[in-house]
């Protein structure tokens, strides 16, 4: 290790790094990895640099290094390029004292470079920086560091001192000067059009095609708009409205990358690999009640929870290739995190990196999973325009082996006074852009937005109703006769008239399934009393509401079937008494309390116990045990629902 390297100079930036960077922003090769103005644990440091010693970019099968283009394997070429900084002298106190800064596109990350490019910018870009500034948001201090890297790859302390002084001087002058743009952009008058690359019909067609491909894939459309503002001015506008912990700005010469991501995709440090994947989001509103409803949808929604946990399982599986398998674990699975724009489902995943794995290996092992790279060919076809850096990643790999990359949402490409940005939406199986779902109510199929029952319905007022849930396979309800007879028995116990016979019951269920065009379906049938006013006494000649709805079935994540489910013993409530438990009534309060306790305990299911301490059933499952080749299940007399599976 050369003595005196890296050279580190403390500097004072009175207005912070972003202000000091303003006159550097329009210089080719400049970058800032920006953690915002508000301090957070994940965003303690921001970094900036200028004048990369070397640059790498790839488009299709062509690789360009320092301006020279050749046909080569892009993935292997990138590995060799990143190795330039391996073994260089790092600083024990600064997380990034020099190394690689750049981005990997969605398409390139999904295919590891094995693709043909049709984008107007490269698919991957990195610059090698040996002189950078680090800004500590907690302390309000900054340091310029330089490795003093020469053309032959050796390090020189005197050269490092010169480069550090030059960057410090530029930052000082910028911090104390009024901003003047180095570039003149032609003025544009009037309202700038925002153009989508998809027509309405193509958007609906693509949206519907992605349904069922996998759990909650992201469908994005590209928008294009000209502007008279410089790229740095656009970035500052973006930053003022949407400060983010993992934001960034990279001036690549003839194009710029502007990112305002809140999410760290992967961090590699000290041999540890950490990820915080996000899957499932709901926009924030000023209405507190509506906000609570949206958070509740994330916490308790079966489809979004299953999708998130499926993603976590896939990431952990891919990490086994680059980490010690025994070290890979997940914590705080599917918990809520909020920013100024939205609420998100987030998990924490970690592992211990194998000795032969590089930071690039770790990044490319998880990027395709997080960004739906497994269905990249379908996405590229239905979206009609390359995503490029959107849902790809922006970040750095330091010479000390520390690496940090974001998930590049809220990210745009700026080229030739035109901004290219994407907006995405998660595609749920029960989503339909062309028609509302149909609900069966008392003999009629009506759109869901027109499906109403009276506020005096006694199921709504007192839980005085019964229901059945069943699975449909290939459009046919399973065990329909058994569900009908249980429903009829429960109606008799509550003295509710069931308005259909067994034949009409199955006919109406199938009619509802077909009307909603679902084959693998979850079906629910409700029977409740129509009340005339509030009061315990039933009115004479009480009629019933008979309703059916069907929606696409979302099973548990595959990992649950492979590895088993995590269950928790319910402690907040006991199971209902046998006389009540045997009725599948619309008064589901006990099970809802138990279900929330199970989710709070980060479990897939909760197990009820009787007041005598016996395990009875799950909140939505039957319980079985196998012992010496014999199958056991708790007796109904202890307080179990007589499940159809039993």
Total beta strand runs: 34
Radius of gyration of CA atoms, rounded to a whole number = 30 Å
Q: What do the pLDDT scores average to?
A: 87
Q: Please bin the fraction of helical residues.
A: 25-40%
From the N-terminal CA to the C-terminal CA, the straight-line distance is 70 Å
State the helix count: 16
* Helix-strand category: alpha+beta
Unreliable stretches = 179-190
Overview of this structure, please?
With 646 residues, this protein is α+β, with helices and mostly antiparallel strands. The protein is 26% helix and 30% strand. It has 16 helices and 34 strands. Strands 4, 5, 6, 7, 8, 15, 16, 17, 18, 19, 20 and 21 form a 12-stranded antiparallel beta sheet that branches. The protein has an 11-stranded antiparallel beta sheet with strand order 1-10-9-3-2-13-14-22-23-12-11. Helix 5 (200-210) packs antiparallel against helix 10 and helix 8 runs antiparallel to helix 9. The longest helix has 19 residues, at 157-175. The model is unreliable at 179-190 (pLDDT under 50).
SSE blueprint:
Blueprint: E1 7-11, H1 16-21, E2 31-34, E3 45-49, E4 54-59, E5 62-65, E6 68-71, H2 74-82, E7 99-104, H3 106-111, E8 124-129, E9 131-136, E10 141-146, H4 157-175, E11 195-196, H5 200-210, E12 218-226, H6 231-241, E13 246-251, E14 256-261, E15 264-269, E16 272-275, E17 278-283, H7 288-300, H8 302-319, E18 329-338, E19 342-352, H9 359-370, H10 376-383, E20 393-398, E21 403-406, E22 411-415, E23 418-426, E24 438-441, E25 444-447, H11 458-462, E26 465-473, E27 476-477, H12 480-493, H13 502-515, E28 521-529, E29 544-552, H14 558-563, E30 567-569, H15 578-581, H16 589-600, E31 605-609, E32 615-618, E33 625-627, E34 630-632
Parallel strand pairs: 30-31
Antiparallel strand pairs: 1-10, 2-3, 2-13, 3-9, 4-5, 4-8, 5-6, 7-8, 7-20, 9-10, 11-12, 12-23, 13-14, 14-22, 15-16, 15-21, 16-19, 17-19, 18-19, 20-21, 22-23, 24-25, 24-29, 26-27, 26-28, 28-29, 31-32, 33-34
Helix pairs in contact: 5-10, 8-9
């Amino acid at each position: 290790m050369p003595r005196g390297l890296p050279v580190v100079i403390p500097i004072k930036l009175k207005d912070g790094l972003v202000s000091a960077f303003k006159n550097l922003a329009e210089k080719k090769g400049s970058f800032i990895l920006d953690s915002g103005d508000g301090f957070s644990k994940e965003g303690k440091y921001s970094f900036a640099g200028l004048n990369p010693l070397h640059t790498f970019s790839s488009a299709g099968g062509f690789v360009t290094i320092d301006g020279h283009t050749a046909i080569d394997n892009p993935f292997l070429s990138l590995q060799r390029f990143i190795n330039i900084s391996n073994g260089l002298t790092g600083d024990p106190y600064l997380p990034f004292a020099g190394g690689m800064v750049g981005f990997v596109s969605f398409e390139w990350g999904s295919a590891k470079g094995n693709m043909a490019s049709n984008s107007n910018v490269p698919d991957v870009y990195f610059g090698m920086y040996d002189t950078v500034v680090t800004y500590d948001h907690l302390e309000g201090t900054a340091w310029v560091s330089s490795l003093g890297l020469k053309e032959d790859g050796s390090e020189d302390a005197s050269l490092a001192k010169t480069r550090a002084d030059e960057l410090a001087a530029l930052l000082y002058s910028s911090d104390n000067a009024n901003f003047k743009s180095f570039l003149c952009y032609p003025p544009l008058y009037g309202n700038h059009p925002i153009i989508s690359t998809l027509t309405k019909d193509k958007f609906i067609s693509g949206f519907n095609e992605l349904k069922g491909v996998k759990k909650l894939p992201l469908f994005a459309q590209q928008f294009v708009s000209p502007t008279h503002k410089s790229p740095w001015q656009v970035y500052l506008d973006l930053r003022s409205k949407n400060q983010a912990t993992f934001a960034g700005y990279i001036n690549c010469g003839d194009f710029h990358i502007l990112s305002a991501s809140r999410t760290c995709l992967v961090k590699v440090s000290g041999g540890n690999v950490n990820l915080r994947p996000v899957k499932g989001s709901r926009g924030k509103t000023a209405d507190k009640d509506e906000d609570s409803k949206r958070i509740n949808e994330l916490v308790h929604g079966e489809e979004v929870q299953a999708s998130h946990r499926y993603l976590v399982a896939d990431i952990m599986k891919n990490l086994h290739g680059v980490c010690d398998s025994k070290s890979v674990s997940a914590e705080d699975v599917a918990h809520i995190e909020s920013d100024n724009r939205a609420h998100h489902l987030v998990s924490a995943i970690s592992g211990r990196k194998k000795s032969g794995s590089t930071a690039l290996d770790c990044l490319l092992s998880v990027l395709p999973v997080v960004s739906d790279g497994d269905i990249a060919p379908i996405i590229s076809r239905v979206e009609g325009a390359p995503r490029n850096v959107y849902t790809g990643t922006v970040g750095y790999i330091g010479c000390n082996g520390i690496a940090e990359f974001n998930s590049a949402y809220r990210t745009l490409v700026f080229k030739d006074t035109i901004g290219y940005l994407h907006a995405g939406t998660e595609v749920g199986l029960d989503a339909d852009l062309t028609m509302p779902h149909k609900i069966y109510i008392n003999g009629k199929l009506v759109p869901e937005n027109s499906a109403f029952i009276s506020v005096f319905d006694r199921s709504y007022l007192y839980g005085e109703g019964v229901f059945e849930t069943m699975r449909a396979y290939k459009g046919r309800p399973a065990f329909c006769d058994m569900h009908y007879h249980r429903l009829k028995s429960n109606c008799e116990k509550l003295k509710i008239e069931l308005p259909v016979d067994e034949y009409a019951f199955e006919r109406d269920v199938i009619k509802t399934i077909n009307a909603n065009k679902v084959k693998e379906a979850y079906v629910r049938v409700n029977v409740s009393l129509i009340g005339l006013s509030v009061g315990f006494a039933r009115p004479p000649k009480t009629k019933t509401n008979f309703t059916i709805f069907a929606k696409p079935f979302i099973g548990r994540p595959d990992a649950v079937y492979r590895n088993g489910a995590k269950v928790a013993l319910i402690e907040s409530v006991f199971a209902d008494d046998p006389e009540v438990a045997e009725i599948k009534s619309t008064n589901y309060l006990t099970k809802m309390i138990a279900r929330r306790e199970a989710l709070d305990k980060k479990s897939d299911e909760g197990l009820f116990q009787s007041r005598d301490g016996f395990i009875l059933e799950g909140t939505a499952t039957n319980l079985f045990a196998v012992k010496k080749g014999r199958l056991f299940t708790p007796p109904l007399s202890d307080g179990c629902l007589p499940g159809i599976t039993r």
